[in-house]
Amino acid sequence: MTKVHTDAFIDRADFVHFMASHRRQNSPHPLKFWKATGRPRYLLEVFSLLLAISILFLAYRYYFGSLADVFDEKLCAKPVTELCLLEQQVIDACRVSANCEALSQQKKDAAAAKQTDTPLVLVEVFYEVLCRDSKEFIIEQVFPAFQKVGGIVNMSLVPYGKATERQDGNEYVFTCQHGPNECKGNIIQSCAISLCEGKDRNLALSFVNCMMVSHDSAGAGPSCAKDVGVEWAPIETCSTSSAGNKLQHIMAQRTDSLKPKLNWVPWVVVNGVHTQDIQDQATNDLRKLICDTYKGPRSPGCDS
Predict the structure, then answer these.
(1) What does the DSSP 8-state code read for residue 260?
(2) What is the dihedral of CA 205, 156, 127, 265, to 10 degrees?
(3) Does residue 69 carry a pLDDT above 60?
(4) For 16-58, what is each residue's pLDDT tens digit?
(5) What is the mean predicted confidence (pLDDT) over 180-201?
(6) Which residues are CB-neighbours of 196 under 8 A, at least 6 positions away?
(7) Alpha helices by DSSP H, the chain
């Protein structure tokens, strides 16, 4: 019988124990592996970097975004006539697309009138700054009509109404139907009309319309100047000086020379004529009255 050496055989339990021990020795614990490779530190650095980038991005957006808002505000404060000469992106950003389209049509209508030698329709509006009917007429009839058919009409505004004047030395003292604030507002608008009209008819009417929309029409000058894009300082200087006093005297003379005499405001005169029929038509649809009176090519603004 062959002798069997028991030393050559390994007990099954010892074998399993041996293999498990071998694996532990050759495969480091996962935590030891991560520590050994430095991965926790690496992830912390990456996270810190991403956080820093996020903070810098937010700071950039806040700072430069605020600058952009200020830039846009200053840019959009320019007169519409200037904005309409800029690129479409600016026009859209300042939300004046409709204004630019109206201005473009006005220029086309004015060019057509000049080419055909057709006189513009002269519309004179005699009104008071604090009169409710005057405010409604300018807001609902005058300004919209001018926006649509401004190229075929010469719109003349006369802020005086039922006021009275008396001369005191080299100046005139005005008494207005709705009190001193109305006199103040009338003079402000007279100055704005005089200063803006020679440069841009749209500016004068836009300024007047803005003041009339305000609940404090007599005190809305500074904010309206900013909104419309005109300088307030020259208007203010004019309104508190002898220049404004003289301009208001001219408005008084124009009003007092009306035939027939003004007995209601707003008072509308078309091509030098005032009748009750003209007054009624203007009150109901001033744009239609202008279009029906104009003798030149019909403006697209009459039908839009």
Answers:
(1) S
(2) -130
(3) no
(4) 555 555 555 555 555 554 455 555 566 677 677 787 787 776 6
(5) 91
(6) 203, 204, 207, 230
(7) 12-26, 30-37, 39-76, 80-83, 88-93, 97-115, 132-137, 143-149, 180-197, 201-213, 221-228, 232-239, 242-256, 276-293
Q: Which residues pair with 144 in a beta bridge?
A: none
Nearest Cα to 125, choosing from 283, 266, 248? 266
Q: How far is CA 158 from CA 6, 187, 214, in A?
A: 129, 10, 19
Spatial separation of the C-alpha atoms in residues 146 and 200, rounded to whole Å: 13
* Helix H or strand E encompassing 81: helix 80-83
Question: How far is Cα 77 from Cα 100, in angstroms, rounded to an integer?
Answer: 15
State mean pLDDT over 186-207.
90
Q: Identify the H or E element spanning 278.
A: helix 276-293
Predicted TM-score (pTM) of the model is 0.71
Mean pLDDT across 142-156: 95
Question: Residue 25 CB: number of other CB atoms within 10 A?
Answer: 8
For 79-93, the pLDDT digits (tens) are 777 878 888 888 888
Distance CA 255, CA 277 (A): 20
CA angle (148 as vertex; 299, 285 as ends), nearest 5: 95
Q: How close are the terminal C-alpha atoms of the chain, in Å?
A: 123
The candidate with the shortest Cα–Cα distance to 199, out of 234, 164, 158, is 234
Q: How far apart are CA 2 and CA 11, in angstroms?
A: 21
Task: Count other C-beta atoms under 10 Å from residue 178's C-beta.
Answer: 19
Cβ count within 10 A of residue 118? 15
Q: Per the structure block, which two tokens stand in for 14?
A: 């010892």
The strand order across the sheet containing 267-270 reads: 153-159, 121-127, 267-270
Question: Is the pLDDT confidence value at 285 over 60?
Answer: yes
Q: Enumerate residues 6+ apart whose C-beta is below 8 A from 217.
A: 129, 130, 135, 185, 211
Pairing state between β 171-175 and 267-270: unpaired
Compute the chain's Rg from CA coordinates. 39
